[in-house]
Design goal:
Helix 10 crosses helix 11. The strands form four sheets. A five-stranded mixed β-sheet has the order 5-4-3-6-10. It is α/β, with parallel strands linked by helices. The two termini are 17 Å apart. Bound molecules: zinc ion.
Length: 385
């Protein structure tokens, strides 16, 4: 998904290209009007004209098309003032909606967001995928998706699915270190078949969690987002854009070595971050059976150990990329300030940057990747109405 791409730059004049160029300009202007409404709703037609530089007549014509297409609605006219009352415009909350699906190592999630990005229905459920064939996990995710679609009652035009592994440029889940049976699985195609053919775009969970931070958490343009869970993944955002690497594999922080003589890892390596600060390692170190008990009262020694391992791995990334901010998400967000302090201390000792790296807890929290998967669909629709 190239969901954070810049607005395309298209000349306002159709030039000499004739009808095709005219249509191109109109599509561009439709997107421009939508963007202005989305960025400052409710807004009058005159307000849109003033902000875009388009004539009021052009704006009115474009707005009519966007209303007919279900993208915009008119609110009741404001009272007072002189002259004809203006009906303010806003995004249509009953218009095209996006579905988000998440298939984790041991859970599934689904949510629907409306055109404004607001979550209209969301459900999560335990679903163990380490022992099950991929088809069973996809089927469970599709069931949950059908439930949230029915609950939201909106026209879902597309879906994004967050996956705990490497997603290739063709959308195939190539490999998920914690799901050994999920190798080269066309999750998007399988899910689309089960959802009546709506287009499904797969993405990496950590990348989507980072986008959630960018879109809903008000983050600066450059940061690392580290998701803690059974796997540990990082989303890298540089210049306001996700950085995924040549093959979509960037951000596998969980398999950065923090102890060359440490325990064997699911990836085939040894002493990876995941073995020191992944969910299972933290539960073992704390001597508790589940995450709820861990986050209720995390032992100081566990936070210190996790903070040290995370700090070692992150110091390498920060020294290499010069990002000023590290955001802790997933399980790490739930471990709170104790972990933030431990990571901060380790980074202070290992990173050259000045001022020191800003370490903080995720704003969107644990549901961020799921929400971003859905929001990417409507953001794309708003860019290309
Ligand atoms: Zn590993």
């Amino acid at each position: 998904m190239n969901s954070a791409s810049r607005p395309d730059l298209v000349p306002e004049s159709p030039g000499t290209g004739g009808a095709a160029a005219g249509r191109h300009v109109r599509r561009h202007n439709l997107a421009l009007v939508l963007r202005e409404v989305a960025g400052g709703e409710p807004v009058s037609r005159a307000g849109v004209a003033a902000r875009t530089g388009l004539t009021r007549g052009t704006v009115s014509s474009l707005v009519e098309e966007l209303i007919a297409g279900g993208f915009l609605t008119e609110l009741a006219a404001a009272r007072g003032g002189t002259g004809r009352p203006a009906n303010p415009l806003q995004l249509n909350r009953s218009g095209p909606a996006g579905l988000g699906v998440e298939i984790g190592v041991d859970h599934v999630g689904a949510c629907v967001v409306d055109l404004s990005g607001a979550v209209r229905a969301v459900r999560t459920a335990p679903s163990e995928h380490r022992s099950q064939p991929p088809a069973a996990g996809v089927a469970r995710a599709a069931e949950l998706a059908a439930e949230v679609i029915a609950e939201a009652g909106l026209p879902v035009v597309g879906a994004g699915v967050a996956l705990p592994g490497v997603v290739g440029p063709d959308g195939v889940l190539q490999r998920a270190p914690n799901l050994p049976r999920w190798v080269d699985v066309a999750v998007g195609e399988q899910l689309a078949q089960r959802l009546g053919g709506i287009p499904v775009t797969p993405g990496n969970e950590a990348d989507l969690a980072a986008l959630a931070e960018l879109w809903f958490g008000g983050r600066p343009a450059d940061f690392l987002h580290v998701s803690g869970g059974i796997g540990v993944g990082a989303g890298i955002v540089l210049g306001g854009e996700p950085f995924r690497g040549a093959g979509g594999r960037a951000g596998e922080l969980g398999h950065v070595v923090v102890d060359p003589d440490g325990p064997a890892c699911s990836c085939g390596g040894r002493g990876c971050l995941e073995q020191a600060a992944g969910q299972e390692a933290l539960l073992r170190a704390a001597g508790v059976p589940d995450v709820e008990q861990l986050v209720a009262a995390p032992p100081a020694t566990v936070l210190a150990g996790a903070g040290r391992a995370l700090g070692i791995a992150l110091a390498g990334a920060v020294n290499l990329l010069d990002v000023p901010t590290v955001v802790l998400g997933g399980l790490y967000a739930r471990l709170g300030n104790g972990l933030v302090d431990a990571v901060t201390a380790e980074l202070r000792a290992r990173v050259l940057s000045r001022p020191p790296v800003d370490v903080r807890v995720s704003q969107p929290g644990t549901g961020g990747a799921l929400r971003a998967a859905a929001a990417a669909v409507v953001r794309e629709r708003l860019r290309h109405p």
